[in-house]
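Appendix B.2, paired examples.
Example (i):
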Amino acid sequence: MPYKVLLTQHADALGQAIQLGFDQSGFMELMLLPQHLNWGDETAVSRWLDAAKPDAIINTCGWSDDGRDASFQAIVEPAKVLATLCSERQWPLLQLSSYRVFNGEKSGFVEADELEPRDEVGELYRQAEQVVAEAPQHLILRLSWVIGWQGQNLLTRIMLPLLEGAQAEIVSERRGSPVSHEDIARVVNALAKQISCGSDNWGVFHYGAADICTEDEFAVYLVKRLGDKAEVLGEVVDVSGKSTEPLSAALGYRHLMDCFGVQPRTWKQAVGNELALWANNNPMAVDQA
């Protein structure tokens, strides 16, 4: 019998990347939770999970690259229900979280740093982490900036205006360790494999790129690489004076690497991989370059 891993949210860009990663590995069976499931009805969720009988659960409910649709019902409520049910059934639970649980005032953050959410979205992630931590077999994976060729994220926020002849706004001093959808899928798959093999490393882990960049450095590199695939019509504009958001979203990776052997990738590799995926899915843009 294959090891069955259930993914709660799969219609978004990250969910699609995780599905593809599991399909390509072929080691485990990925099950998909119905998107219409009412997370406020613990009985209904329990009934569905007991019928599905997963061996582990990956919870990305409510998670997004930019947090714009975050709410208690979308993030905290599913985490609470899943933590309760996983505790009762002794199922491992992997919960995605975010750099937003930190205030952004340090140059970078490690797992032991005190949580001080930078905004309302960060507070929701903190609450979700708190309830998930009550499950005996839990992994909380905090992510730095997440980028991808589709969805709302730093890469598309800069790339799309450049292609449309508009201004792409950045805050030059913001810093992070960007990771791609495809790379997160790789990491999640690796963690699930090790859980299936009996790994007993539970707790909180960070994943960020092997190196750190500012939004300015990210934009300069993106423009260079994008110019190899399409015509760049717009321009990058620094709007640092307009921003009040904390500067740092940089997370480390050493604890994850030490416990699971997961090697980080550079943010430039992440950009290159996502642009290649974009080009494969937008051949007209490449043909016109």
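Example (ii):
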Amino acid sequence: MCKLAVSEMQNISGLEQIYTKIGEVGNTLLSLFRIILLSRRVKPFSLPVYNNNKELVVLGNGPSLRLLLSERSSFLEGKDLMMVNFSASSDDFARFRPMFYLLMDPAFFEDEATRQKLFVPMVDRTVWEMHLFVPVSARKYAAWQEIVSRSPYIRIHWFNATPVEGVVSFRHFCYRKRLGMPRPRNVLVACLMVALQLPYDTIYLAGADHSWMKEIWVDENNIVNEDRAHFYDRNSTQRVVSSHRLHELLDSMAVAFRSYHEVEAYSRKRGKEIINITPGSFIDAFRRMSVD
């Protein structure tokens, strides 16, 4: 009986490995189709000459970033910064003068109200050289480009946000050629992948709380609600009624957390290191460090 059970377990394990391999091949072919359909040739990032000893800090939206900017800002001295999303609408934008800025959400390029809320203050406040990274899918929207073109300081760079999955060697080849990246379910996935193309060996990740599971709740009508907080909200929380079921939100979170592990594996392949300095972060992919 025991021998039979062991034999059955081995057969099951063998089948699972076969299914995994088939899945990898299928995802590779699907990713290749996505690249052909969605990715475009992008030029290498044309950036100024850097001090090789410098380090990069990617500043996410999480509420924990407020503590870093308010009380631990000395950590940022001598380092280059990358900001995201609506950071340009905060006073911290002009104070810290990020060298890099990255956007992913299609609403920034498609929606008129969102464009005005973001790009107008960005152009008005940017009086230093700043490099703006945007997905190639945003090329078809002229309105935001017209606003940004008013600034003599902002330079636009394009990147492919095409999701790439499948065999590891295929994925890393596509990442290196800037054809795509791990599923960018969160803007910080795109930030880190772009950062790995820049001449920094050490990349710090701040404001990456990702504590979404604590911010989601279901009311008596089975409606999923989210309490969203960002560092620039100044102690206010935005309550949002989700259009998704709970399992759909959790699936989305799982994709994001898995993508971070793929980013970490690629960073090691490149001989670079990503260090998470976000206190209480739910991301379990990167080495942790306290700025204290």
